[in-house]
Amino acid sequence: MEKILIVGATGSTGKRIIEILNNSQSFDPVAMIRKEEQKDIFEDMEVKWVLADLEQDDFSQALKGIDKVIFAAGSGGKTGPDKTTEVDEKGAIKIIDAAKKAKIKKFIMLSSMGADEPSKHKDLEHYLEAKAEADEHLRESGLKYTILRAGALTDDMGLGKVKLAGKLGAPGEIPRDDVAFLLIMSLADPLVQNMTFEAVEGDEPIKSAMIELSRG
Q1: Which entry of 71, 127, 145, 181 is annotated as an active-site residue?
Q2: pLDDT of res. 82
Q3: Confidence of residue 84 (pLDDT cuts 50, 70, 90)
Q4: Which among 36, 53, 207, 213 has most CB atoms closer than 10 A?
Q5: Rounded to an integer, what distance in angstroms lies between the CA atom of residue 22 and that of residue 84?
Q6: Which pLDDT does position 75 carry in this prediction?
């Protein structure tokens, strides 16, 4: 089984990823947590955890024995520029560099729609600029990667149906459940390899949408 480090494991989307992977026959999730008191959440689920902080410099211990990484951390669009830069840009870049050094097989990044045009979204500009910098760093890192630029995340029940494209014509929403499944499906090596794509809720089942997108 491949060991998957979930960065942002204590967040709403991260927890969904852990729950799904914990029932997988192919992947063994490892939750990255900032504070030791957060370990109880995962110990109750019998999920392994490692202690590391995106605002620190050394991720070598967190990446030990890890095969692939899902980065689902985010400060959120309402967070101030300084915190956003520390987590969404600098923190992401540091762990991308550490993943390259650790020879991680694939790095899956949860990004955001609008990251290709931050100036068009003034209320989220600093957040999208940070995401854009991290995305670009990953693309240039030499790691195998997938970058998922999701629409606005909701807590609605996932229906397993999406609309995917390298660039969608209009903004939209997508349930966290469906984002979690998209990120997990991206772990499969042939799927969306070295691709950046956008996702909102739609009419096509996730699996067929991913396969179709991968074929180009």
Answers
A1: 127
A2: 62
A3: low
A4: 213
A5: 29
A6: 65
1: Cβ–Cβ under 8 A, 6 or more apart, which residues? 24, 25, 26, 27, 28
E strand segments, 24-130: 27-33, 48-51, 68-71, 106-112
Burial class, 45, CB count within 10 angstroms (exposed 0-12 / middle 13-18 / buried 19+): middle
Query: In CATH, which superfamily holds the domain spanning 2-215?
Result: NAD(P)-binding Rossmann-like Domain (3.40.50.720)
Q: Quote the Cα angle for 127-95-215, to 5°.
A: 80
CA distance 215 to 118: 29
- Dihedral sign, Cα of residue 173, residue 10, residue 188, residue 109: positive
> Is 127 marked active-site?
yes
Show me where the domains of the chain are located.
2-215
Measured CA to CA, the distance from residue 10 to residue 33 in angstroms comes to 7
